[in-house]
Design brief:
Structural class: mainly alpha
CATH superfamily of the domain at 177-311: Tetratricopeptide repeat domain
Number of strands: 0
Radius of gyration: 50 Å
Order of helices and strands: HHHHHHHH
Largest sheet: none
Helix content: over 70%
CATH class of the domain at 177-311: Mainly Alpha
Protein backbone atom coordinates (compact mmCIF):
# COMPACT_ATOMS: atom_id res chain seq x y z
CA UNK A 1 0.00 0.00 0.00
CA UNK A 2 1.47 3.33 -1.08
CA UNK A 3 1.51 6.25 1.26
CA UNK A 4 -0.40 9.42 0.30
CA UNK A 5 1.59 12.56 0.54
CA UNK A 6 0.38 15.14 3.10
CA UNK A 7 -0.59 17.72 0.44
CA UNK A 8 -2.56 15.18 -1.53
CA UNK A 9 -4.26 14.01 1.68
CA UNK A 10 -5.50 17.55 2.46
CA UNK A 11 -6.90 17.91 -1.04
CA UNK A 12 -8.79 14.67 -0.70
CA UNK A 13 -10.21 15.69 2.64
CA UNK A 14 -11.34 19.07 1.22
CA UNK A 15 -13.01 17.41 -1.76
CA UNK A 16 -14.88 15.05 0.53
CA UNK A 17 -16.15 17.97 2.60
CA UNK A 18 -17.39 19.79 -0.49
CA UNK A 19 -19.23 16.70 -1.72
CA UNK A 20 -20.71 16.20 1.69
CA UNK A 21 -22.02 19.83 1.75
CA UNK A 22 -23.48 19.41 -1.74
CA UNK A 23 -25.42 16.37 -0.65
CA UNK A 24 -26.83 18.20 2.37
CA UNK A 25 -27.95 21.11 0.18
CA UNK A 26 -29.74 18.74 -2.14
CA UNK A 27 -31.58 17.15 0.83
CA UNK A 28 -32.60 20.57 2.23
CA UNK A 29 -33.78 21.68 -1.22
CA UNK A 30 -35.87 18.54 -1.65
CA UNK A 31 -37.42 18.98 1.76
CA UNK A 32 -38.31 22.61 1.00
CA UNK A 33 -40.06 21.70 -2.28
CA UNK A 34 -42.27 19.07 -0.57
CA UNK A 35 -43.45 21.53 2.12
CA UNK A 36 -44.48 24.17 -0.44
CA UNK A 37 -46.61 21.60 -2.29
CA UNK A 38 -48.39 20.69 0.92
CA UNK A 39 -49.09 24.34 1.72
CA UNK A 40 -50.38 24.93 -1.81
CA UNK A 41 -52.68 21.90 -1.59
CA UNK A 42 -54.00 23.05 1.78
CA UNK A 43 -54.66 26.55 0.46
CA UNK A 44 -56.44 25.11 -2.59
CA UNK A 45 -58.64 22.91 -0.37
CA UNK A 46 -59.39 25.91 1.84
CA UNK A 47 -60.46 28.01 -1.14
CA UNK A 48 -62.75 25.22 -2.38
CA UNK A 49 -64.26 24.85 1.07
CA UNK A 50 -64.83 28.61 1.34
CA UNK A 51 -66.61 28.64 -2.04
CA UNK A 52 -68.81 25.74 -0.95
CA UNK A 53 -69.59 27.55 2.29
CA UNK A 54 -70.50 30.71 0.39
CA UNK A 55 -72.82 28.73 -1.91
CA UNK A 56 -74.43 27.05 1.10
CA UNK A 57 -74.92 30.44 2.78
CA UNK A 58 -76.52 31.83 -0.38
CA UNK A 59 -78.88 28.85 -0.54
CA UNK A 60 -79.76 29.28 3.15
CA UNK A 61 -80.48 32.97 2.61
CA UNK A 62 -82.64 32.17 -0.42
CA UNK A 63 -84.57 29.50 1.47
CA UNK A 64 -85.03 31.83 4.43
CA UNK A 65 -86.42 34.51 2.13
CA UNK A 66 -88.80 32.00 0.52
CA UNK A 67 -89.93 30.75 3.92
CA UNK A 68 -90.58 34.27 5.18
CA UNK A 69 -92.53 35.12 2.01
CA UNK A 70 -94.51 31.89 2.30
CA UNK A 71 -95.28 32.61 5.95
CA UNK A 72 -96.44 36.12 5.07
CA UNK A 73 -98.61 34.77 2.24
CA UNK A 74 -100.08 32.10 4.53
CA UNK A 75 -100.76 34.71 7.20
CA UNK A 76 -102.43 36.97 4.65
CA UNK A 77 -104.52 34.11 3.27
CA UNK A 78 -105.53 33.02 6.76
CA UNK A 79 -106.44 36.58 7.62
CA UNK A 80 -108.59 36.86 4.49
CA UNK A 81 -110.29 33.57 5.30
CA UNK A 82 -110.92 34.67 8.88
CA UNK A 83 -112.32 37.99 7.62
CA UNK A 84 -114.62 36.20 5.15
CA UNK A 85 -115.83 33.78 7.82
CA UNK A 86 -116.38 36.66 10.23
CA UNK A 87 -118.51 38.44 7.64
CA UNK A 88 -120.54 35.28 7.07
CA UNK A 89 -121.08 34.86 10.80
CA UNK A 90 -122.16 38.49 11.10
CA UNK A 91 -124.53 38.06 8.15
CA UNK A 92 -126.02 34.91 9.66
CA UNK A 93 -126.38 36.68 13.00
CA UNK A 94 -128.22 39.56 11.34
CA UNK A 95 -130.45 37.09 9.52
CA UNK A 96 -131.18 35.25 12.76
CA UNK A 97 -132.04 38.51 14.48
CA UNK A 98 -134.34 39.47 11.62
CA UNK A 99 -135.99 36.05 11.68
CA UNK A 100 -136.54 36.28 15.43
CA UNK A 101 -138.15 39.69 15.05
CA UNK A 102 -140.25 38.34 12.18
CA UNK A 103 -141.42 35.41 14.31
CA UNK A 104 -142.44 37.78 17.10
CA UNK A 105 -144.29 39.97 14.60
CA UNK A 106 -146.15 37.00 13.14
CA UNK A 107 -146.95 35.76 16.63
CA UNK A 108 -148.48 39.12 17.49
CA UNK A 109 -150.48 39.04 14.25
CA UNK A 110 -151.69 35.55 15.06
CA UNK A 111 -152.89 36.68 18.47
CA UNK A 112 -154.70 39.62 16.88
CA UNK A 113 -156.35 37.37 14.32
CA UNK A 114 -157.43 34.98 17.07
CA UNK A 115 -159.02 37.78 19.06
CA UNK A 116 -160.80 39.11 15.98
CA UNK A 117 -162.01 35.63 15.15
CA UNK A 118 -163.52 35.19 18.59
CA UNK A 119 -165.08 38.65 18.38
CA UNK A 120 -166.62 38.12 14.93
CA UNK A 121 -167.78 34.53 15.55
CA UNK A 122 -168.78 34.30 19.24
CA UNK A 123 -170.50 30.94 18.70
CA UNK A 124 -167.06 29.37 18.99
CA UNK A 125 -167.30 29.99 22.77
CA UNK A 126 -170.41 28.91 24.78
CA UNK A 127 -172.43 31.87 25.97
CA UNK A 128 -171.32 34.09 23.11
CA UNK A 129 -168.26 35.44 24.92
CA UNK A 130 -164.63 34.29 25.11
CA UNK A 131 -164.09 31.81 27.93
CA UNK A 132 -160.96 31.80 30.03
CA UNK A 133 -158.74 28.73 29.65
CA UNK A 134 -159.58 26.02 32.18
CA UNK A 135 -163.04 27.34 33.07
CA UNK A 136 -166.12 25.13 32.92
CA UNK A 137 -168.69 26.07 30.25
CA UNK A 138 -172.08 27.04 31.73
CA UNK A 139 -174.88 24.51 31.47
CA UNK A 140 -178.01 25.59 29.64
CA UNK A 141 -181.03 26.32 31.82
CA UNK A 142 -184.14 24.14 31.53
CA UNK A 143 -186.11 26.95 29.98
CA UNK A 144 -183.62 27.30 27.13
CA UNK A 145 -182.72 23.67 26.64
CA UNK A 146 -184.47 22.22 23.57
CA UNK A 147 -185.80 18.68 23.50
CA UNK A 148 -183.54 16.11 21.92
CA UNK A 149 -186.10 15.32 19.25
CA UNK A 150 -186.83 18.92 18.38
CA UNK A 151 -185.28 20.29 15.16
CA UNK A 152 -182.51 22.84 15.54
CA UNK A 153 -183.84 26.35 15.87
CA UNK A 154 -182.72 28.99 13.43
CA UNK A 155 -181.75 32.23 15.07
CA UNK A 156 -183.46 35.31 13.85
CA UNK A 157 -181.25 37.51 11.70
CA UNK A 158 -179.67 40.30 13.67
CA UNK A 159 -178.50 43.71 12.54
CA UNK A 160 -175.70 43.68 9.96
CA UNK A 161 -172.23 43.98 11.39
CA UNK A 162 -169.22 45.70 9.91
CA UNK A 163 -166.87 43.38 7.95
CA UNK A 164 -163.82 42.30 9.94
CA UNK A 165 -160.38 43.58 9.02
CA UNK A 166 -159.09 39.99 8.96
CA UNK A 167 -160.76 36.86 7.53
CA UNK A 168 -162.80 34.80 9.93
CA UNK A 169 -161.08 31.57 8.89
CA UNK A 170 -158.14 32.28 11.15
CA UNK A 171 -155.66 32.72 8.25
CA UNK A 172 -154.08 35.90 6.94
CA UNK A 173 -155.42 37.58 3.84
CA UNK A 174 -153.36 37.32 0.63
CA UNK A 175 -152.57 41.02 0.80
CA UNK A 176 -151.11 40.54 4.29
CA UNK A 177 -148.60 37.93 3.12
CA UNK A 178 -147.70 39.99 0.07
CA UNK A 179 -147.28 43.17 2.12
CA UNK A 180 -145.13 41.42 4.73
CA UNK A 181 -142.79 40.11 2.02
CA UNK A 182 -142.60 43.54 0.40
CA UNK A 183 -141.71 45.12 3.76
CA UNK A 184 -138.88 42.60 4.11
CA UNK A 185 -137.66 43.57 0.63
CA UNK A 186 -137.81 47.27 1.51
CA UNK A 187 -135.72 46.63 4.62
CA UNK A 188 -133.06 44.79 2.61
CA UNK A 189 -133.97 41.37 4.03
CA UNK A 190 -133.95 39.83 0.58
CA UNK A 191 -133.85 36.18 1.65
CA UNK A 192 -136.90 36.69 3.85
CA UNK A 193 -138.63 38.58 1.05
CA UNK A 194 -138.00 35.74 -1.41
CA UNK A 195 -139.40 33.22 1.06
CA UNK A 196 -142.46 35.41 1.68
CA UNK A 197 -143.25 35.95 -2.00
CA UNK A 198 -142.76 32.24 -2.74
CA UNK A 199 -145.21 31.41 0.05
CA UNK A 200 -147.68 33.88 -1.44
CA UNK A 201 -147.36 32.22 -4.87
CA UNK A 202 -147.71 28.77 -3.35
CA UNK A 203 -150.96 29.73 -1.63
CA UNK A 204 -152.41 32.06 -4.25
CA UNK A 205 -150.91 31.25 -7.68
CA UNK A 206 -153.88 32.84 -9.48
CA UNK A 207 -154.12 36.00 -7.39
CA UNK A 208 -154.00 39.36 -9.18
CA UNK A 209 -150.75 40.15 -7.32
CA UNK A 210 -149.05 36.89 -8.34
CA UNK A 211 -147.21 38.49 -11.27
CA UNK A 212 -145.90 41.27 -9.04
CA UNK A 213 -144.80 38.74 -6.41
CA UNK A 214 -142.85 36.82 -9.06
CA UNK A 215 -141.25 40.04 -10.25
CA UNK A 216 -140.08 40.99 -6.75
CA UNK A 217 -138.42 37.59 -6.35
CA UNK A 218 -136.29 38.41 -9.40
CA UNK A 219 -135.63 41.90 -8.08
CA UNK A 220 -134.50 40.44 -4.74
CA UNK A 221 -131.97 38.15 -6.44
CA UNK A 222 -130.74 41.11 -8.48
CA UNK A 223 -130.17 43.08 -5.27
CA UNK A 224 -128.35 40.12 -3.71
CA UNK A 225 -126.08 39.96 -6.78
CA UNK A 226 -125.20 43.64 -6.40
CA UNK A 227 -124.23 43.02 -2.80
CA UNK A 228 -121.89 40.19 -3.81
CA UNK A 229 -120.40 42.40 -6.52
CA UNK A 230 -119.70 45.18 -4.02
CA UNK A 231 -117.93 42.70 -1.72
CA UNK A 232 -115.82 41.33 -4.63
CA UNK A 233 -117.49 37.90 -4.64
CA UNK A 234 -117.78 37.52 -8.38
CA UNK A 235 -118.78 33.86 -8.49
CA UNK A 236 -121.66 34.27 -6.06
CA UNK A 237 -122.74 37.45 -7.85
CA UNK A 238 -122.94 35.53 -11.14
CA UNK A 239 -125.02 32.79 -9.51
CA UNK A 240 -127.49 35.34 -8.16
CA UNK A 241 -127.66 37.12 -11.52
CA UNK A 242 -128.45 33.85 -13.29
CA UNK A 243 -131.16 33.13 -10.72
CA UNK A 244 -132.57 36.63 -11.23
CA UNK A 245 -132.76 36.00 -14.99
CA UNK A 246 -134.71 32.78 -14.40
CA UNK A 247 -137.15 34.49 -12.01
CA UNK A 248 -137.75 37.43 -14.36
CA UNK A 249 -138.46 34.99 -17.20
CA UNK A 250 -141.22 33.40 -15.11
CA UNK A 251 -143.11 36.72 -15.02
CA UNK A 252 -143.73 36.65 -18.77
CA UNK A 253 -144.07 32.86 -18.95
CA UNK A 254 -146.55 32.44 -16.06
CA UNK A 255 -148.24 35.86 -15.90
CA UNK A 256 -148.18 37.35 -19.43
CA UNK A 257 -150.92 39.87 -18.57
CA UNK A 258 -149.28 41.14 -15.39
CA UNK A 259 -148.41 44.82 -15.11
CA UNK A 260 -144.82 43.95 -14.20
CA UNK A 261 -144.03 42.13 -17.48
CA UNK A 262 -142.30 45.12 -19.21
CA UNK A 263 -140.27 45.90 -16.09
CA UNK A 264 -139.30 42.23 -15.72
CA UNK A 265 -138.12 42.13 -19.35
CA UNK A 266 -135.99 45.23 -18.86
CA UNK A 267 -134.45 43.99 -15.60
CA UNK A 268 -133.78 40.61 -17.18
CA UNK A 269 -131.84 42.37 -19.94
CA UNK A 270 -129.80 44.32 -17.38
CA UNK A 271 -128.90 41.08 -15.60
CA UNK A 272 -127.85 39.52 -18.92
CA UNK A 273 -125.64 42.52 -19.63
CA UNK A 274 -123.93 42.05 -16.26
CA UNK A 275 -123.47 38.36 -17.14
CA UNK A 276 -121.63 39.40 -20.35
CA UNK A 277 -124.41 38.05 -22.59
CA UNK A 278 -125.17 41.09 -24.82
CA UNK A 279 -126.83 39.09 -27.61
CA UNK A 280 -129.48 37.67 -25.28
CA UNK A 281 -129.90 41.08 -23.68
CA UNK A 282 -130.56 42.66 -27.08
CA UNK A 283 -133.16 40.00 -27.87
CA UNK A 284 -135.07 40.69 -24.65
CA UNK A 285 -134.89 44.46 -25.12
CA UNK A 286 -136.12 44.15 -28.70
CA UNK A 287 -139.01 41.97 -27.53
CA UNK A 288 -139.90 44.65 -25.00
CA UNK A 289 -139.82 47.41 -27.64
CA UNK A 290 -141.85 45.41 -30.15
CA UNK A 291 -144.56 44.14 -27.79
CA UNK A 292 -144.89 46.94 -25.23
CA UNK A 293 -144.36 50.19 -27.17
CA UNK A 294 -146.24 52.29 -24.58
CA UNK A 295 -144.53 50.93 -21.47
CA UNK A 296 -142.40 53.26 -19.39
CA UNK A 297 -139.39 50.96 -19.79
CA UNK A 298 -139.56 51.02 -23.60
CA UNK A 299 -137.64 54.28 -23.98
CA UNK A 300 -134.95 52.96 -21.65
CA UNK A 301 -134.84 49.75 -23.66
CA UNK A 302 -134.26 51.70 -26.89
CA UNK A 303 -131.34 53.56 -25.28
CA UNK A 304 -129.81 50.29 -24.11
CA UNK A 305 -130.24 48.79 -27.55
CA UNK A 306 -128.43 51.72 -29.18
CA UNK A 307 -125.63 51.41 -26.65
CA UNK A 308 -125.23 47.66 -27.19
CA UNK A 309 -125.29 47.92 -30.99
CA UNK A 310 -122.73 50.71 -30.90
CA UNK A 311 -120.12 48.53 -29.25
Amino acid sequence: MCEVPPGRRAAVLLLGAVLSLGGCAEVHEATGIATQQDVFQIRQDMATTQQAAQRAKAEVDSLSTQIERRVREQAGENERQVTALTKQVESLTDTLTTLSARIEELGARLDTVGRQLRTVNPSLVPGGAPRAPGSVPPSPSPSTQAPASAPPMIAAPGPPTAPPSRPTTGSLQPQDIYQAAYIDFSKGSYSLAIAGFREFLRRYPDHELAGSAQYWIGEAYLSIARGFTDSAQGDRASESLEQAVQEFKKVLANYPRADKVPTALYKEALALIDLKQPALAQARLQYLVDNFPRAEETSLARERLSSLRGR
